[in-house]
Design goal:
The chain has a single domain, classed as TolB, C-terminal domain (Neuraminidase), CATH 2.120.10.30. Strand 18 and strand 19 form a beta hairpin. Helices cover 9% and strands 40% of the residues. It contains 3 helices and 28 strands.
């Protein structure tokens, strides 16, 4: 009953226009101020298609609502230095921080567009990632670049180092998501979603919506050029496979072999589905955000095991905490669920 009441109040707060932070505070106040004692509100359900899912998601597992009231959340990343998760609110050009026991708070603004002229559309940061040195990398829609935050964790300011902003003299469309391999090379996708007028934007310079590789030495190459809307990107546990979701037509999750030199080969359809952000666990299972209002869980062999139905559009997911927590950005929410498997990198 308490969870139902809290969920109802959160929905009413959203309608009245309260911020994400105030929504979370409202939930805590209703629950007596002790979020651990009162328990967090939950949302959605687990769809079990294959019995192997029970080894990944316990029968009593639930998706908890950590924050609400955003416009569109994306790019969750666990930051050990903060003992919390950072995530983007793209239309609001902001990054928020959530830590255990407290509400989500505004952590950085602006996050993806630093120009002085007014700008609409999806202007903020999208994908967030830690590099091998522990620095925060951002796929910035508004500034159309891959950047590194040049600031401290405890007192962040919007100071960025540009890693790359163009290919062959032409500006990127709007870098979307990122993945880093074992040697530190960065791979990222560049669909047109962050342009104010999308594919018809007069500021668009590149005809191809590519996937790129930026080496630690600063060399940039286009490694995929035949996907209409490359979106999420992630490596398999052994780094031998790169997965890329295509959110255009045809809606597919692609898999590519990664050579010892970092090049890609043998591109093939891994799973037939529209997809956004991706995450991988240590068993090689692939978590695909977006389709059917949630997160698909697909075996390394490309078999659908089940889904985390968030009941709403879902953009991305990432592992955090001790590696057993999956954080999910879903429409206006930040969610989490505890699993029985660890994410890659933990």
């Amino acid at each position: 009953m308490l969870r139902t009441f809290v969920s109802l109040v959160l929905r009413l707060c959203r309608i009245s226009g309260l911020s994400a932070t105030l929504l979370t505070v409202a939930s805590m106040m209703i629950c007596g101020g002790d979020i651990a004692e009162a328990q967090l509100p939950t949302i959605g359900s687990i769809e079990r298609i294959d019995s192997r899912l029970d080894l990944i998601v316990s029968l009593d597992a639930e998706m908890e609502v950590l924050a609400a009231g955003h416009e569109w959340t994306e790019g969750p990343v666990w930051v050990p230095a903060l003992e919390g998760v950072l995530y983007s609110d793209i239309p609001n050009n902001a990054i928020y921080l959530w830590r255990e026991g407290g509400p989500a708070s505004l952590w950085l603004q602006p996050s993806g567009y630093t120009g002085e002229a007014p700008r609409g559309g999806e202007s903020g940061s999208n994908g967030l990632l830690l590099d091998h040195e522990g620095g925060l990398l951002l796929a910035q829609h508004g500034d159309r670049r891959i950047a590194r935050l040049d600031s401290s964790w405890d007192a962040p300011v919007a100071s960025f180092e540009t890693l790359v902003r163009e290919f062959e003299g032409k500006r990127f469309n709007s870098p979307n998501d990122l993945a880093v391999n074992a040697n530190g090379d960065l791979y990222f996708t560049d669909p047109p979603y962050g342009l104010e007028q999308g594919i018809e934007d007069p500021a668009k310079e590149l005809d191809v919506h590519g996937v790129y590789r930026l080496t630690v030495g600063g060399s940039l190459t286009q490694v995929i050029s035949d996907l209409p809307r490359p979106n999420g990107i992630a490596f398999s546990p052994d780094q031998g496979t790169l997965y890329v979701s295509n959110s255009g037509l045809p809606p597919v999750i692609m898999a590519y072999d990664v050579t010892s030199s970092g090049d890609l080969s043998n591109g093939r359809v891994f799973y037939q589905s529209w997809g956004d952000g991706l995450a991988i666990d240590q068993q090689g299972n692939v978590y695909v955000a977006g389709p059917d209002n949630g997160v698909l869980i697909i075996s390394p062999d490309g078999e659908l095991l089940g889904s985390l139905n968030t009941t709403q559009r879902t953009s991305n997911c990432a592992f955090g905490d001790d590696g057993y927590t999956l954080y999910i950005t879903s429409d206006m929410h930040l969610l989490r669920i505890r699993l029985n498997v660890k994410g890659v990198g933990f």
